[in-house]
What does this fold into?
Amino acid sequence: IAFYTSPDLKTWEFASRIEGYYECPELFELPVDGNPADTRWVVYAADGDYAIGHFDGRKFVAESGKHRFYHSDCFYASQTFNNIPSEDGRRIQIAWGRAGHPEMPFNQMMGFPVELTLRTTEEGIRLFALPIREIESLYRVRYAWDHLTIPEGSLALDEVAGELFDLSLDLHPDDATAAGVKIHGVPVTYDCVKRELSCLGKSAPLSPVNGRIQLRVLVDRLSLEVFANDGRVYLPVCAILPVGSQGVALFAQSGAAVATRLEIHELRSAWEPA
It folds into this structure.
């Protein structure tokens, strides 16, 4: 990525260059932990791997990175925007979901818009992603449980029916070796031994926080977008969901687990009138 400056947008002067980025570059500033007095710049390109640092208008100096932003093959060439009408300062990202869809009148898709933030972690400052709050305008039926024991095997939630969901799960693995949720028969699994989150062959490292794992899953007709530990991990996957399956179930392996909190919102289609 090369940086040029110009006093009139006609005459350009080379300022600096950084190596290792290809296609669709992004460069933007974010507060750290919401503090406007402490900011960093984020730079990335099409593959989403990012560096955090400082930018003076001519040169980007990396403080850390590259860091992996997402963990799947259903993300590429994202673009961000801000200055939305509410002027709340959010940096919103929409990615390109590079996945073919058999028997559909289109090919590939856009990911759900997510809000990007910088937060301090035990590894340093990292980029977090969560669905924008406007998804609440699509909420229909709500289901909620507290302290739900998941026996070894599967626990079907028979009262939940529908196609599209926004699901949030606080999971305490307890003595299970793996646990998670199946949505339309597709498992989102946390391996307690490997400390790894996985879905449809894609995986990401994930460590418990205070002994629990926090999952959020957006369920669309052709994708599952998984967010873990408040957006620390982002795992969007293309998913051709089985026709006719509208169920949700919790599961645990080699022992029991506990869902300390489970909340599911059935979603209406964004194409339907409110």
